[in-house]
User: What shape does this take?
Amino acid sequence: MSEEYKRRYTFGADYGTSDFKFGPITCGETPEIIENRGYFPDTESLMYRIMGTPKEVVVGKEIPLYLGSREDLTLRMVYPMKNGIIRKDDERAWRVVYEITKYGLKSFKPPEKEFDGFYVVASLSSIAPRYMYERLFEIYRQIDEEEKLVKAVTIIPQPLAVAIAQKIPTCVVLESGHGNTQVCPISRYPIRNAVVAINRGGGDANSITAEILKDCGYGDLAREEAFVRRIKEEIGLIPKDLTKAVEAAKKNPERFRVIYRVPNTRIEIDLAENSWTRFLIGEYVFNPNHELFHSYFSRGMPKPEDARIGDITFRGMIDFGESIIESVERCPIELQPYLYGQILLSGGNFAWKVPREFRDVATDSALKIRLLLEEKGIRNAKIVMTKDPQFSVWRGCIVYGYAVPEDYEWNWERMEGWLKFRE
Amino acid sequence: MWRLRLQEGCSIIVGDITISGQITCYLKRKPNLSVDDYWLRLLDLLKKRVRFKGEEGGFYIFEDGRISQFLIPKAEDRKVKVPFRFLTQSPKFLDEIFMASTEEFGYCDLSCSLRGDIDFEKLRSWTKTFGLVWLGETEETFSSILDVGGQILKLTAYPRREMLNLLGTLRRNSREPSGILRAIFQEESMAVISVRVPLCYRESCLKIAELQGLSLSDVQRNALKMCLERFYRREIKKLMKL
Assistant: This one.
């Protein structure tokens, strides 16, 4: 198979905790996205006997067509990854991964007779254990046996994909998704012993948004996660300094007042004199240690706790600045200045709006990280926010697949190269 | 997000379009230049054509679009390949990067993805009728090789994803990308090519038309397509392999 063939059919697959981003090189700059979840319909139901039996697992945009009651959801909807990890024996979760992978590959199967499978670059969390690699390879092997869709496959850690996409071989990557955040120093390859995993992501910003909505009298709406997420994206702000920002907002509530109308509904959200809480949403992601959050914890909002998954401890309350320092300080001293010199922010959890009129008190993710580092004595750090951060892992997968020679075979020691299932 | 509107009256685009993809540009190899210098050289070529607004997170932002390095430039004999990615909503910006990329060697490799509200049914029938080679279709895609003003391109469409991809080697002395899009999106009128032929040809053509259940103009169009196919055989073969 020629190098040209591989380049034409390079395929990227980014397994995020919340979303699965996938697509071939022909997608240009933007992959397709579906939620990383699967629904197991009740196939015994009489309706299904009448209307025809559905698939055992439904994934992608069809899911809403099969949903039942809220109680059913908890039983039948499976989100396979928790903090980027799938338990070894969680067969339903692996089944969902199989389905979304097959869905992704089939969506782009080209009609040409010459097509003999994609060169797939899959990307997993930097803390994914070896069994996840083995199981994912097995899934691709199975799909290839059934559909001849996989010519070769390789797996790379997500932070490495980000570094590749940005063409920066020595850096620290902060990849923050819905469920968790990884801080991973890279010197040509991820320094696995220095990875710091944080049990906090966009989902936690949703949690505090829901609490704020409850406090403002919108408790009924706060139960719907998709709605809460939208509100977070519309009104959340990252403060440069939370104390000062809250003070400014309390002094002049009208300036920061936000009224959000949900399109095509009669729903209107008005935080009124509580508009200062907008700053809590952003701050909570970066640093949940401020005393203002204590009242929420004491009223029952779960604190981001340390969680142990496999051999990895996900830290709950560590702030992002501290986590970068901890990670860098596990690397050789000579390397440390270079790592601080290139800190890449990637993942949807770093995409925050900074309205022009609030620039005196609000900021973007890059500056917030710099301020957190400066507080701890790290100056001159260079923080780069990747463009469209939610897609940078997928882009890195494509670049990697394009560049790795077609005849470079998978090596378990180096964890790189192509694994092929056929001659 | 930027929005693109092609001229009004187009029949295939019914909404907004985003254009992105990769271009491999070829530059003359020069002594004492490092591979990074070739990337800077490409940027200079483009800066002469489009207003440069600055660099942000590895992306080079221009007036109507952005580019970024795809792979590190690679020297081959007297050429240096400089692959880069682009994103725009302006076909004019695509023309400018095409002109910059073809300035030294007269050609570049393009893989261009278009997303948006496209009438894929119309596109399917247009490519089936006017494409040089119909490569086939599945539930999710269809694919064809086209001649657009002398540029030979492979078109792959993904109707459910509202996306299509154009792939090929573009030559500077043929049609520019915005012209290619105009043709594909049926913004230009049909041309009549008239030829005087001996009467015996006309009789044969009528016979073929009758046997195949086609109109005389369909037979003439097919004959023209066969002629173009033969003329572009090498390029078509290359695209079919990809």
User: Anything to note?
Assistant: The mean pLDDT of chain A is 90.
